Amino acid sequence: APLSPTSALPPYFMKGSIIQLADGELKRVEDLRTEDFLQSAEVSGELKIDSSTVERIDTSRTPDAVIIQFSVGEHKAQVCVEVLVEYPFFVFGQGWSSCCPDRTTQLLALSCAKLSVGDVCISLTLKSLR
Amino acid sequence: NVEPRSVPVFPWHSLVPFLETSQSN
Asked: In chain A, which residues have their Cβ closer than 8 Å to the Cβ of B12?
């Protein structure tokens, strides 16, 4: 199948993109570590890191897309998202991962691991949310 | 002569999703 255009993915996932952490430090997207997100959430004061565990990964009717079911946060809310197979998620302790790492690397030059059921991804929530 | 060019800088929180479904206070 023809590759979806990179424009379908946010520009900040492109290797070499400059990311500003909450303390002002600048890092390249490919150099980010789990600690960078944890510390930035601490500094931000408004945001909290949630652990979102991949429960299921199903094919979608949308071409080149999958439906990922997550168990989110301490309440284990069940959330489903439909994303392109190359969309990268940040897995705790592992780094960028997607359902189709080769495609992610081909489109974004971002090295990627394979996202699998059981992986725990970083997601955000507002501290003000109950 | 290298023309200076602006490099976009993205905030860290744009990289990870908001997945929580709870209602706000």
From this structure: 19-22, 32, 36-37, 40
In angstroms, the CA A93 to CA A79 distance is 22
CA angle A21/A129/A120 to nearest 5° reads 60
C-alpha span between A36 and A14 (Å, rounded): 18
User: Which residues in chain B touch residue A121, judged by CB atoms under 8 angstroms apart?
Assistant: 16
Contact residues on chain B for A129, CB-CB shorter than 8 A: 20, 22-25
Alpha-carbon gap: A73 to the closest alpha carbon of chain B (Å)? 7
ipTM above 0.90, yes or no: no
pLDDT digit string (tens) for A75-122? 899 999 999 999 999 999 999 999 999 999 999 999 999 999 999 999
> If you count DSSP H runs as helices and E runs as strands, how many of each does chain B have, helices first?
0, 1
What's the number of CA atoms in the CB half-sphere (13 Å) around residue B20?
A: 20
* Window 39-78 of A, Cβ < 8 Å to B: 40, 44, 47, 50, 52, 70, 72-73, 75, 77
Q: In angstroms, rounded to a whole number, what is the distance separating the alpha carbons of residues A119 and A91? A: 7
